């Protein structure tokens, strides 16, 4: 069974007109279960109009704080985000999956100062804030450069908190605000683009060796920033990213006609069934009430990862798994279509 625990909402904080933070109460007996690394996310589950809804949200607090909080930005015509911003209240209970995800920061205790940078847009600030605070708290001599894009200051999540952090750490935290709808003094106008990245690398911090870069936000921004970083001799290993949405449509090159004998192993139990190749593995699992882990269903989180034990499958799109993980058989089941007559996937062996 996919592990979810009922957690009570301790507090709801209005961050902007379109975003709220949900702070959860973690019972003492679940403290270990809900321990996390900076940058990780949780999956929230509830029922809306009789339908189960799951959504992944990044934790915005550092692991050392005694708070467990996610931030939800309202999306027009959204489902859970509308509920969170308009109807949820302190005392309500949601089902919460323990933290997961690979977009993480782990403090380096080597005694040397490091400099980290992050490029975030909109609600992409949420995991970055957790990472940023962890650096300031646990690497006392390290620095952090944040480039943060929004439409206006009023729509900038954690705006006041970031200014307070910058004032408290003037020699360690440097923030470049970027606004696309207004021209503010000492801020950049427009969007995070090649010029913004080059300003950080070649102008303001041209004599700095960055240890790592964290990118979080829309796919277009992440692709552009990654491209410019690589042009500036930053290695792929130095860049971590997390998508909050994607505009790229998936594409399958293989022929998806016919059926496949699918075997799913989860929680040490196996289920075998016949499935059409034009469906995904996750679709088949959910259609047959098999309780497998999942969240976004869009190929931008890693909740539904399983290992291919037998057979082959092709993903419509993949923004999470690296080549070495794919080579060892890992697959995003929400994107995976069988390409062999039999396919066995194991959710336990990941």
UniProtKB/TrEMBL annotation:
Species classification: Bacteria, Pseudomonadati, Bacteroidota, Flavobacteriia, Flavobacteriales
Domain of life: Bacteria
FAD-binding FR-type domain: residues covered: 2-106
Name of the featured protein: Ferredoxin--NADP reductase
Gene3D superfamilies: 3.10.20.30, Nucleotide-binding domain of ferredoxin-NADP reductase (FNR) module, Translation factors
SUPFAM superfamilies tied to this protein: 2Fe-2S ferredoxin-like, Ferredoxin reductase-like, C-terminal NADP-linked domain, Riboflavin synthase domain-like
Record's keyword annotation contains Ribonucleoprotein: no
Cofactor: FAD
Annotated transmembrane regions: none
UniProt keywords, alphabetically: 2Fe-2S, FAD, Flavoprotein, Iron, Iron-sulfur, Metal-binding, Oxidoreductase
Domain 2Fe-2S ferredoxin-type, residue spans: 260-350
CDD domains in the cross-refs: fer2, PA_degradation_oxidoreductase_like
GO terms, molecular function: 2 iron, 2 sulfur cluster binding; flavin adenine dinucleotide binding; metal ion binding; oxidoreductase activity
């Amino acid at each position: 069974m996919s592990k979810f625990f009922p957690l009570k909402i301790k507090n709801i904080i209005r961050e902007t007109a379109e975003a709220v933070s949900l702070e959860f109460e973690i019972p003492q007996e679940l403290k270990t279960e809900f321990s996390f690394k900076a940058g990780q996310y949780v999956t929230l589950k509830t029922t809306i109009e009789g339908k189960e809804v799951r959504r992944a949200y990044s934790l915005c607090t550092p692991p050392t704080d005694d708070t467990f909080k996610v931030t939800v930005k309202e999306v027009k015509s959204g489902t859970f985000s509308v509920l969170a911003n308009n109807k949820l209240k302190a005392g309500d209970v949601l089902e919460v999956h323990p933290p997961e995800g690979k977009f993480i920061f782990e403090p380096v205790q080597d005694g040397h100062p490091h400099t980290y940078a992050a490029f975030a847009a909109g609600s992409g600030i949420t995991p970055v804030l957790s990472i940023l605070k962890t650096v300031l708290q646990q690497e006392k001599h390290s620095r952090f450069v944040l480039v943060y894009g929004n439409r206006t200051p009023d729509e900038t999540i954690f705006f006041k908190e970031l200014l307070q952090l910058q004032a408290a750490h003037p020699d360690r935290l440097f923030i470049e605000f970027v606004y696309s709808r207004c021209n503010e003094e000492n801020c950049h106008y427009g969007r995070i683009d090649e010029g913004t990245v080059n300003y950080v690398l070649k102008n303001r911090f041209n004599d700095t060796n960055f240890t790592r870069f964290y990118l979080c936000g829309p796919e277009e921004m992440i692709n552009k920033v990654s491209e410019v970083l690589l042009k500036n001799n930053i290695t792929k290993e130095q860049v971590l990213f997390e998508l909050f949405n994607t505009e790229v449509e998936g594409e399958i090159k293989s022929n998806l006609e016919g059926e496949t004998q699918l075997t799913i192993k989860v929680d040490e139990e196996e289920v075998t069934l016949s499935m059409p190749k034009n469906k995904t593995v996750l679709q088949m699992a959910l259609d047959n009430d098999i309780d497998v882990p999942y969240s976004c269903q869009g190929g931008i989180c890693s909740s539904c990862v399983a290992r291919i034990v037998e057979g082959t499958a092709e993903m419509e799109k993949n923004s999470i798994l690296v080549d070495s993980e794919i080579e060892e058989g890992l697959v995003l089941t929400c994107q995976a279509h069988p390409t062999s007559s039999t396919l066995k996937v194991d959710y336990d062996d990941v």
